[in-house]
Amino acid sequence: MNYGKRIFLWIVLFWIGSAQVFAEPFVQGGPIGSQTSDGYDALGPVVEQPIEFPHNTHAGRMQINCMYCHTYARRSNVSGIPRLDKCMGCHNLIEGVKDRPRIKKLFEYWENKQPIPWKKVHDLPDFVRFNHERHIQRFYFQEKRPVREVCGYCHGDIASMTTARRVKALSMGWCVSCHQKDHLEKAGSTVTSHGPNDCWLCHK
Amino acid sequence: MSLSNLIQNWNSFRTRRPYEGQYDDAPYKWAMVIDLDSCIGCNACTVACYAENNLPVVGKERFGKGQAMHWIRIERYWGEGDTMTSEFPDHGAQYLPMLCQQCEAAPCEPVCPVGATHHSPDGLNTQVYNRCVGSRYCSANCPYKVRYFNWWNYPDRAWPNPLELQLNPDVTVRSKGVMEKCTFCMQRLRAGMDKAKTEGRILADGEVLTACAQACPTSAITFGNLADKKSKVARMWKNQQVDLAKDSQEKSEEGIRGYRILEELNTYPSIVYLERVRNLEA
Hints:
The structure holds 2 protein chains of 2 kinds. Chain A is mostly helical. Chain A has helices at 3-22, 55-61, 66-69, 84-91, 101-111, 132-142, 147-155, 172-179, 199-202; strands at residues 183-184, 192-193. Chain A has a domain at 55-167. Chain A is built from 9 helices and 2 strands. In chain A, a hairpin with a 7-residue loop joins strand 1 and strand 2 (192-193). Chain B is of the alpha+beta class. Chain A: This is Class III cytochrome C family protein. Chain A: Residues 47-105 form the Class III cytochrome C domain.
């Protein structure tokens, strides 16, 4: 092999190697179908919901706290999908939008006494335990960070979407990357600590 | 990482022992006491474990081949003194519930080629199913034989519809090719510990029980937090003069019944058994 060829080979090898090493662990909101280095979709699939629920109106324009509807997030493993009567509690009284097609659909479900078959967007593998309560208690109640930021760590900026879509990798490496960071213990304090790293905390 | 570093790390891993005051600052160290004098061998603990931890029922044939998946089993021993030759040999039967001893220096841990089993901060010997590659080395190295291997894909057949609805959602349903073992009902402990942490306290004694301890009709199984000196389990360990960090226990007087199984192997188990008391002359 002559000298020039060898140099060329090394350059190619280095380029491939560096692309692997320095690649972002995931691309937040990357193009559809793009994959993270660990094989996850950077952006989750579009999930067709029975009603195209506008998060941007509720959480964005109306500034409703996420936990008004996802009420179990602060006291349970799962955040919970609101029951139909949670929707009706407000929409019964909002006369101005009752003629909109999405609201008409909502009332249809209500009159047929049918629950809305919402579909899961952020679905973790069955062998993983994720506790909403601990994260919300720590960052929202203890550190008093804004709710859109706290939920956004894992869910992205839902308040700018209509129906939710997964924008974070939700892979183990991605979870650990945050657990290894130093977080402030309390708002305003200088003491930091990182998240727990025991296997059985998340694996069950 | 240099080679000497690697060897040093490996050695420290292999020679790890519990030491005096190891859990003094830790919030939790889970431990158990099993009173063999109270155990009537009814198998309620085993049934409770099957229900709680999604254990498959393997059937008679596979049971005979030693492929049963019971994380806690009742071992039966015959003959104590002269009872075998007496008129009622059944009186000599004695039972010993055997489950993972959650050893502090667990023989299964250093041999795992992929690090699927390790020691948790609360002193439990963990098993991460989706990391396990099924080498079965841990089971070979376990002196208590309490690790169970999934030889078959039980989710396919062990819970025909609608039985899958009884599965516990907080516990993984294990598939073919992974090792599994008693977890001290980690899902219950984790739920309790998370709740307690939100409320800014540690778990109170008896707040969380393992399924076996909860189901035991004679309260032969006591479960609790050894790091909490006032817990029932810690007081029993102290009364029985068993020390977590010692490999042989010196008793101040005769008749103290507490012992740990195969302690001479330096496994430092987290379960104390109380010897059975029988008056054979009567």
